[in-house]
Amino acid sequence: MRNHNFTVYPFTAIVGQEKMKKALILNAINPKVGGVLIRGEKGTAKSTAVRALANLLPEIEVVQGCKFHCNPHDISTMCEECLEKVKSRTLNISFEKMKVIDLPVSATEDRVVGTLDIEHAIKKGEKRFEPGVLAYAHRGILYVDEINLLDDHLVDVLLDSAAMGVNTIEREGISYSHPASFVLVGTMNPEEGELRPQLLDRFGLCVDIKGIRDVAQRVELIKYRLSYEADPETFAASWQAAESELRVQILLAQKLLSDVKISDSMLELVSQICVDMGVDGHRADITMMKTSITLAAFNGRTEVLEEDVKEAAELVLPHRMRRKPFDNPSEKQDKLNESIEKQREKQKKNEQKKKEHKEHSEKAHTQPEEQKSDSTQDVAGEQPDASSETIFATGESYQIKQLSPDFRRNKRKGSGRRSKTLTKSKQGKYIKSKIPKGKTTDLAFDATLRAAAPYQFTRGKNGNSIIIHDSDFRKKVREKKIGNLVLFVVDASGSMGAQQRMVASKGAVLSMLMDAYQKRDKVGLIAFKGAGAELILPPTSSVEIAQKYLEKLPTGGKTPLPHGLMKGYETIKAELRRDPDTCPFMVLISDGKANVSMYGEPPLQETKKIASMFREECIQSAVIDTESSMIKFGLAREISNSLGARYLALEDLKTDSIVEAVRASAPFEFSFPSGSFSI
């Protein structure tokens, strides 16, 4: 019987996804390109392509028996063990296929970087290293599916190692380094949350992919897959010629790479495009240059042409052009194409007529300033009828400081940059020590020495400077920051249209969304109006999606406040059941004038009953009172008391003061240019 488990789907048999395949090939030719981030839908052959590429590439020479797969011909990158073999002339060479190492989202720091046995170092005076994922990935491909869900700290470690080619582990003054040069391939679905811009920028290339829309290609894909599943070996053999041709092209490109030259005019084109696109820093310029050179080598040329720079820009710039969390990527992509075309024409004109350079330059930089204030004029004019639905513009957003509920008493998993919590992960901050239960890999060296110090006179040293017993060992207690779930429950009834209250409320929510984006929070959005409440956006890490829903939120109808609070309570409880480590915080924006009941009781009475459930469950919350009439009923304050929430009135505050009010909710601390205060 044939064993089909080891027959990999051929790389050249993958239908479509040409940009993704090209990005992977470029990294195989020149790992200094910096890896690739693949964004898009599931089921689009991402993992298949990565494994197929590794199988396509020829075997590599390695030092026999080396756990890091060191290159036997490059002493500068060898590990300590291989250097010793070189000195003793015991180094042997073997051949291995390039490996694809998977990094699960749940991986710990020790699993990624490896560990040092501190106990062994103290007792024996010897370094003993346990390899991690980075060690196994050396000279291979490190594949991280859903990298946007990986802890930010681990993403930093991966990108640093990929850029430097070295992984260094330091524990209590003991340091160990080993080579860690690999092609980093990350995949993600943007709807599940974005990577921070600082991390996006560290990926050399980025490709956005979608499922194939052409029916003929989809049929071809199905036929290929059926043939492969029926007889993998025969199918792979039928593609052997195409695989060999591509393999030879990659090998020739690797040899040609050092001979490729890029002219000053092409370097100017690269930098000018980066300036036009408004990218930050200089990493984009350098990566575009490396990618252009690699493309020229892949095409069998020793000189970089404009077509290489254009193709490189399409791979290097898309993920670097988004300067704010809520920028529209499609508009930026259009701008990229326009900029490339403009620079091409400019280059031709410069070569023909240098004297006209100044005239064309001034013309290119002259931009009409029209339509500047149009977006703010659509909110003026007559107020809509309370029974009709109107979509109000979103008020201006602004920079805000963080809210930081304290969860130190509970160990919670997750990542983020807002609330403090105890953690078992070694990436947390060391705050104290304790006696371990069993063996520990996170030894508190200072506390261990202090525990052993009083007994040194009674212990026979036998030439040792210090004697440590198992009872002396102490482990570190660490804390780190995690994100919160911020659930906005927004009154979208007709009364919110008066005096632009909805505009101000949307502006406050938008500011909180931008803050949540920076602090890696989850957000959710509930709107209540008419006869009920709707969970417009379930809890998600993608605050950009929340912002889009917020902009389209219509206003009109009655005020079913009990429905809104109950929907908020149910949403938070469901999220806590799904993830007990969730840190929920509800923000209610309303005037409190409930006029639709759920169970036949007076609406305000129902609202208070539901609000008391939040207080009993210790779910933190804040209430922003939007009531602005001359005669005040104070209903939102009563609801706030039932919730146990911080209450603030909208009429005395500007839009930014709403956010300040939310930040002042116990037990949060806030800081603003005018001063700081805490509750």
UniProtKB/TrEMBL annotation:
Biased composition (Basic and acidic residues): 324-375
Gene Ontology MF term list: ATP binding
Positions in coiled-coil regions: none
Keyword set, alphabetical order: ATP-binding, Nucleotide-binding
Residues in VWFA domain copies: 485-666
Keyword tRNA processing: no
Region (Disordered): 320-430
Basic residues biased stretches: 409-430
Domain of life according to the entry: Archaea
Ranges of compositional bias, category Polar residues: 385-402
CDD domains hit by this protein: AAA, vWA_Magnesium_chelatase
Family matches, as InterPro entries: AAA+_ATPase (IPR003593), BchD/ChlD_VWA (IPR041702), ChlI/MoxR_AAA_lid (IPR041628), Cob_chelat_sub_put (IPR012804), Mg-chelatase_DI-like (IPR052989), Mg_chelatse_chII-like_cat_dom (IPR000523), P-loop_NTPase (IPR027417), VWF_A (IPR002035)
KW DNA-binding (keyword) present: no
PROSITE patterns the UniProt entry points to: VWFA
Pfam families given in the database record: AAA_lid_2, Mg_chelatase, VWA_2
Assigned protein family: Belongs to the Mg-chelatase subunits D/I family.
Protein name as annotated: Putative cobaltochelatase
